[in-house]
Amino acid sequence: MSQLQRITIQPSQLQENLLLFTPQQQHYLVRVLRLREGEKFIAMDGQGKWWLAELAGEKGQVLEPLEVKTELPVAITLMIGLPKGNGFDDVVRCCTELGVGCILPVLSDRTLLHPSPQKLERWQRIATEAAEQSERAFVPTILEPVAFTNAINSCSATHRYLCEARGDYPHLNTLINNTSGEIVIATGPEGGWTEGEVNIAQAAGFQPVNLGRRILRAVTAPIVALSLISASFEV
Amino acid sequence: MSQLQRITIQPSQLQENLLLFTPQQQHYLVRVLRLREGEKFIAMDGQGKWWLAELAGEKGQVLEPLEVKTELPVAITLMIGLPKGNGFDDVVRCCTELGVGCILPVLSDRTLLHPSPQKLERWQRIATEAAEQSERAFVPTILEPVAFTNAINSCSATHRYLCEARGDYPHLNTLINNTSGEIVIATGPEGGWTEGEVNIAQAAGFQPVNLGRRILRAVTAPIVALSLISASFEV
Fold first, then answer.
1. Which of the residues A230, B126, B159, B229 has an alpha carbon 20 to 30 A from that of A55?
2. Which residue has the higher pLDDT, A208 or A181?
3. Pfam families annotated for this entry (chains A, B) (predicted)?
4. Contact: B235, A173; criterion CB under 8 Å
């Protein structure tokens, strides 16, 4: 099973086996995902077509089409304020089962956990096992934890949501629908995001959303969010 | 916080502060929930109105209307093939956060765990803590484990679903919608339901459904199912 980054393209971006990136996609691949010349990645058209490709200068060289039945037709990144204890293990496991493409742990104002580098290996191992058990074609990438503001400001995904239990925000389900482009969904640590963090995220184009009328734990919220997004792309 | 059973009624069943039950509701209250004369319960009209009531002979005596913002307008029972280890603790915790009304553990062909009576107390304590933390108005009821066939055949809920990962069944999200009546959703233990169990459930009026194209663990499936049902009643 390969552990490849994923990117969503418009069908018009594929021309004679070459992928022509937008400046945002270029930035995402090279700066955020740190993909290097010749490294492989997955391109998806958001309508069920998948290609194996490699980075070739400022373009992508398509290597072969892929047949994928258990993967979502969309790239979903979970940006998560690290919960305390071993809660993140459960998040990685469940969200992998639900089809997440990438998990980016963030250190926010209320994050208590500052994980050791060994933790990242552990999480990647959990993701690999969960991907196999759930019969996925690809293993999600677990990125190294970064500061909340950096994560928010370097995000170029088409659809950006921030889950926030308090406040009068629309329900996630009213906004997600079967569109193309990347989705980033952010969920907070115990105690949620601070007001300042919600403001920073809103200024960076994140739409605050709620996940229902009850207060969910930091470990439950990402699983619920992924359940709703996955279902909206599979029904 | 009160720990009361819930039942959904049609508005026409409430006449001058008396609730007139259908034979199925009578059976559910007295045989399944084992409610006794004078014991309190909650009646909901499925449209957001709630009443505190008590059993009075073959009827219900309405005591007072209730104001409830964090409860779902529908009674959801999770029927679950007990997962192994401590997995059921997580299920009770997360499904309580998601608004479940009642959890009925069942002993199925592939159930490995045969819990001690102390376990029931432990689960009820977890449900109580999770209900408080998630700011619910009521604590879900955890019933004593029963045999799969008994649970299936004594079920009189309006909407009955059985989650089954293999086989060509519709996605749960295509079937649930904001209707009145009770919902029962059944999820299997590790390894899922046997073919015989799926047949028994179908014969008893359960609709097999899937929860997406990946294989979910026994602990993840009920959380995903509850996420989808809750969202469909809150959007």
1. A230
2. A208
3. Methyltrans_RNA (PF04452), PUA_4 (PF20260)
4. yes
pLDDT tens for B3-49 read 688 887 888 999 999 999 999 889 888 888 889 999 999 888 766 68
The predicted structure's pLDDT at residue A178 = 65
| pLDDT at res. B115 | 84
Alpha-carbon distance B107 to nearest alpha carbon in chain A (angstroms):
24
| Structural domains of chain B ordered from first start | 6-66 (2.40.240.20), 76-234 (3.40.1280.10)
Distance from CA of B171 to the nearest CA of A (A): 6
Select the more confidently predicted residue: A45 or A103.
Answer: A103
At B132-169, the pLDDT tens digits run 889 888 889 999 999 999 999 999 888 999 999 988 99
* Spatial separation of the C-alpha atoms in residues B27 and B41, rounded to whole Å: 15
Lookup: tokens for A53:
């490709």
With a threshold of 0.95, tell me whether the complex ipTM lies above it. Answer: no
b/e per residue B152-168 (b: at least 16 CB within 10 A): beebbbbbbbbbbbeee
Q: A213 vs B231: CB contact, 8 Å cut-off?
A: no
Residue of chain A nearest B136, judged by CA positions: A214
Instruction: Tell me phi and psi for residue A130, to 5 degrees.
Output: -65, -35
**Distances, alpha carbon A64 to alpha carbons A18, A53, A56, in Å:** 12, 7, 15
Pick from B227, B233, B234 the residue to mutate for testing the A interface (most A CBs within 10 Å).
B227
Nearest CA in chain B to A229: B228
Contacts for B155 with CB less than 8 Å, ≥ 6 apart:
B79, B184, B204, B205, B206
- d(CA A54, CA A63) in angstroms, rounded, equals 7
Chain B nearest CA to A74, separation (Å): 14
Query: B173 contacts in A (CB within 8 Å)?
Result: 231-232, 235
Q: What angle do CA B17, B18, B23 make, to 5 degrees?
A: 155
**Which pLDDT tens digit goes with each residue over A193-228?**
999 999 999 999 999 999 999 999 999 999 999 999
Task: Provide the 10 A C-beta neighbour count for residue A34.
Answer: 10
Place of tokens 């993967």: A71
